[in-house]
Amino acid sequence: MTSKPAMKDATQQTESIRETVREGYARIARGAAALPVFQSTPPSQETLPTDGCAPAAASKGGCCAASADAGTLATALGYSKEELAAIPDGTNLGLSCGNPTALAELKEGEVVLDLGSGAGFDVFVASRKVGPRGRAIGVDMTSEMVARARKNVAAWRERTGLDNVEFRLGEIEHLPVADGSVDALISNCVVNLSPDKPQVWREIARVLKPGGRVAVSDLALFAPLPSSVVSMVDALIGCVAGAALVSETERMAREAGLVDVVLTPKSDYLATLESMGDPLYAEITKRLPPGKSARDYVTSLMVAARRPRTR
Question: Which of 5, 123, 215, 268 is deepest in the core (most CB within 10 A)?
C-alpha cells in the first residue's frame, strides 16, 4: 500500500512539473524564451532572461522556444505553403514536431479538438479543413497562450468567413469537453509534457465519438534517456525529458480503450533540428554516451488510433 507521505510527494512532483511547463510556455506566449538554456533546476523569476533561449542565441526549433525558423520547420514537417500563408500572424511559434492535421484526414462538417493548442496554429489549419459546418476547438492550460490565440479569432473570421474556431482554457488531463463529442482529436508535441500521460489517453478516449479518430504527433523515446538529460529543465520544456517510450505510448493508448493503434516513428524532425543547429539538441548530445546522438534516443512519433464504434 502506498503511504500518504509518498502520495503527497508524488502529487507535489506532478504539480511542480506542471507549473514548470506552464511558466515556460507562458513566457513563449509573451514572446520570450522558456527558461535559460541548460539549467538543471528552475531559476528564480529574477534570473529569467527577457529574450532568447540562451544569453547568446535563441533556440532555432523544437518545443523549447518560439523558433526563428518556424516556417522552415513547419515546411519540413509537411505543412503546405498555402496553409502557412493562410494562418494568422504569430500563431506558428515553431513548436511542432509533426503534422497531425494531415494524418487526421479531416472532413467537412467534423468537430476537431486540438490538445495543447498554444497560439492556435493547428486549430486555424483545421478550421479550413472542417469548413463552416464543422468546429475546430483548442484547449491549452496556459492562459497567456489562450489569450494570444483568441486575439486572432475575429481577424480569422473576417479573412475567411469562417466562424468555427474557439479556444478553451483547461488541462489535457481534465478536458473541458463533453463525452463523445469529437470526431477527430489532434495534438502536436504536447502529450509528452504531461506528468500523467495515462490520464491524458483516458480523456482522449472519453471525448471521442464512437468511431472517432486520433492523430497525435509527439516526441517519444527508443530507449530511456540518461539522468543527466532528464534533469535538464530545458529538456522538459523542449519536449524531451518527459517523453515516454514508444512501447509505453502504445500501451497507454490501448489501455485507454482505443483500437487500431498505429505508431510511425519519423526521423525527419530530429534531422531538421540538427541541420538548423538547435542548441538544445546539441547539448543533449554532449550528455549522451560517446558515439550516440539524440536520434538514437528521441523520435517524432505519429500515433493514429480510434475509439471503437461500440464498447
Answer: 123
- What pLDDT digit, counting tens, does each position of 49-101 carry? 222 232 222 333 334 344 447 777 788 777 888 888 888 888 877 777 888 89
Interatomic CA distance for residues 116 and 242, integer angstroms:
15
Q: Beta strand pairing status for 259-266 and 298-306?
A: antiparallel
Phi then psi dihedrals of residue 174, to 5 deg: -145, 75
The amino acid at 24: G
Cell reading at 21:
511547463
Nearest to 108 by CA among 187, 149, 186, 164: 164
Distance separating alpha carbons of residues 53 and 68, to the nearest angstrom: 11
Q: What is the DSSP string of 55-109?
A: SS----SSTTS--TTHHHHHHHTT--HHHHHHSPTT---S--SS-HHHHHT--TT
CB of 14 within 8 A of CB of 194?
no
Sequence-ordered alpha helix ranges (H) in the chain: 4-29, 70-76, 81-86, 100-104, 121-130, 143-150, 153-160, 197-207, 227-230, 233-237, 246-255, 268-275, 279-286
Q: Which amino acid is at 16?
A: S
Name the phi and psi angles at 109, rounded to 5. Answer: 90, 0
pTM for the model stands at 0.79
User: Nine-digit cell at 56?
Assistant: 547568446
Identify which of 193, 206, 181 has the alpha carbon closest to the alpha carbon of residue 257: 206
Q: Are 28 and 92 in contact (CB under 8 A)?
A: no
Whole-Å CA distances, 260 to 33, 193, 213, 244 = 38, 24, 10, 20
Contacts of 161 (CB under 8 A, 6+ apart): 132
114-125 per-position pLDDT tens digit: 999 988 999 999
Domain ranges of the chain: 4-306
The architecture of the domain spanning 4-306 is 3-Layer(aba) Sandwich (3.40)
